[in-house]
């Protein structure tokens, strides 16, 4: 995304606070910074983008999320443009990191949308055969203690494609996380995030994925303040105690 986001993720990974890092291959710092991932004990995934132009005037198949969702569900996305976007992003990932991604997820969860998920599955099968990356599954984990607004957002995200991911997992053998935690309004500061994190850790079960969006200060986007708040909370020494109290261990997926 940018150098502040990269620095935040790298630092947390070095401290053992992250088990996976997703890469926006079209972001301005990917080519320069992604090679540092080779020295970290994390899974490295491709963060599929169809909504951010990142200053590229001729970005194919990029549109605001509401328009993308509407066109996807109406069956009006152009398969050739989607294929071109997917190919470009996977080519960039492999060119920089020299290998396939460990997993695939989506910026704003676009990987699960109709007309996108089938094209993604076809590309992954063609490129990687039986050496398949795993897919992010967005069905929410337990929501005990989570405020209704945050819980509702988690269910809306899942409604946009979790069932489709579950079907390809069940019928075609694609691997996924068990459930998704970490959904909230991306606001509220460090105290609010710490309270939510306590609840997510309490709700976590084996195989659940807790997503986060940290950055050191100065990320420069509209979420910069909250990204810094997340980093502050995830960097706290007492996080280890919070994990132990809830019987949670940060680790790479169990199939590895």
List keywords for this structure.
256 residues, alpha/beta, TIM Barrel, four-stranded parallel sheet, two-stranded parallel ribbon, 10 helices, 44% helix, magnesium, metal ion binding, hydrolase activity, hydrolase, Cellobiose phosphorylase
Q: Can you characterise this structure?
A:
- This protein has a single domain, classed as Glycoside hydrolase/deacetylase (TIM Barrel, Alpha-Beta Barrel).
- It is α/β, with parallel strands linked by helices and 256 residues long.
- Helix 1 runs parallel beside helix 9 and helix 8 crosses helix 9.
- The protein has a 4-stranded parallel β-sheet with strand order 1-2-3-4, with helices on one face. Strands 5-6 form a two-stranded parallel ribbon.
- The protein is 44% helix and 8% strand.
- The longest helix has 19 residues.
- The relative contact order is 0.14.
- InterPro entries: Glyco_hydro/deAcase_b/a-brl, YdjC-like.
- Its cofactor is Mg(2+).
- Keywords: Carbohydrate metabolism, Hydrolase, Magnesium, Metal-binding.
- GO terms for molecular function: deacetylase activity; hydrolase activity; metal ion binding.
- It comes from Bordetella genomosp. 4.
| SS-derived structural category | alpha/beta
The H/E string reads HEHEHHEHEHHEHEHH
CATH architecture annotation name: Alpha-Beta Barrel
Oligomerization: single chain
Q: Tell me, rounded to a whole number, the average pLDDT.
A: 94
Protein name: Cellobiose phosphorylase
Pfam families: YdjC (PF04794)
Keywords: Carbohydrate metabolism, Hydrolase, Magnesium, Metal-binding
Cofactor: Mg(2+)
């Amino acid at each position: 995304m940018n150098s502040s986001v990269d620095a935040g993720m790298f630092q947390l990974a070095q401290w053992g606070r992250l088990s996976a890092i997703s890469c926006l291959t079209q972001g301005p710092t990917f080519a320069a910074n992604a090679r540092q991932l080779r020295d970290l004990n994390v899974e490295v995934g491709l963060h599929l983008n169809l909504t951010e132009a990142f200053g590229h005037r001729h970005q194919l198949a990029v549109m605001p999320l509401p328009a993308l969702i509407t066109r996807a569900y109406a069956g009006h996305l152009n398969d050739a443009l989607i294929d071109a976007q997917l190919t470009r992003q996977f080519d960039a990932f492999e060119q920089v990191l020299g290998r396939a991604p460990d997993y695939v997820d989506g910026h704003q969860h676009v990987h699960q949308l109709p007309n996108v998920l089938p094209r993604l599955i076809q590309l992954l099968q063609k490129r990687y055969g039986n050496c398949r990356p795993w897919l992010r599954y967005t069905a929410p984990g337990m929501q005990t203690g989570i405020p209704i607004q945050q819980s509702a957002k988690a269910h809306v995200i899942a409604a946009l494609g979790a069932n489709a991911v579950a079907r390809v997992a069940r019928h075609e053998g694609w691997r996924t996380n068990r459930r998704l935690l970490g959904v909230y309004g991306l606001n509220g500061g460090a105290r609010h995030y710490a309270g939510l994190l306590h609840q997510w850790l309490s709700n976590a079960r084996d195989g659940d994925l807790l997503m986060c969006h940290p950055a050191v200060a100065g990320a420069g986007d509209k979420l910069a303040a909250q990204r810094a708040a997340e980093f502050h909370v995830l960097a706290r020494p007492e996080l280890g105690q919070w994990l132990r109290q809830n019987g949670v261990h940060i680790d790479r997926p169990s199939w590895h």
